[in-house]
Amino acid sequence: MTELTFDAFKQSKLSEGFDEVLVREWAPNFANEPHTHPFDTEAWVVQGEYWLTAEGRTTHLKKGDVFTLTRGIVHSEHYGPEGAVFWAARKN
Q1: Quick check: is 66 in a domain?
Q2: What is the pLDDT of residues 65-89, one digit of tens each?
Q3: Mean pLDDT across the stretch 37-61?
Q4: Per-residue pLDDT for 15 more than 80?
Q5: Is residue 1 one of the residues assigned to a domain?
Q6: In this structure, is residue 49 part of a structural domain?
Q7: Nearest-angstrom CA–CA distance, 54 and 88
Q8: Contacts 24+ apart (CB under 8 A), 11-14
Q9: DSSP notation for the chain
Q10: CATH number for position 20
Q11: Which domain range does residue 72 map to?
């Protein structure tokens, strides 16, 4: 099985109507306070792990996991000891 490249992920998400696709890299043990975004997000974790808390639920995400987050949802993140990298597609 061929592993998905960032370029292939980007082209796929742009063809689905997303406005921008980027690589997000997070430092080990970084904790992001509760916040919102003015865009919808669909992302794929490609390295490391983190915990995403939204709407009263915490989800443990690791390499290979995909998550979505709707604009305006208050959420926070806590990254693991190796940090994390995910590819994020955003739709305004």
Answers
A1: yes
A2: 999 999 999 999 999 999 999 999 9
A3: 97
A4: yes
A5: no
A6: yes
A7: 17
A8: 13/42, 13/89, 14/89
A9: -PPPPHHHHHHHHHHTT-SEEEEEEE-TT-EEEEE--SSEEEEEEEEEEEEEEETTEEEEEETT-EEEE-TT--EEEEEEEEEEEEEEEEE-
A10: 2.60.120.10
A11: 6-91
Q: How many domains does the chain have?
A: 1
Report CA-CA distances (Å) from 78 to 9, 32, 40: 25, 6, 20
CB 79 within 8 A of CB 48: yes
Residue 12 maps to a domain = yes
CA-CA distances (angstroms) from residue 64 to 12, 44, 48, 86? 17, 7, 10, 9
Percent of the chain with pLDDT over 70: 98
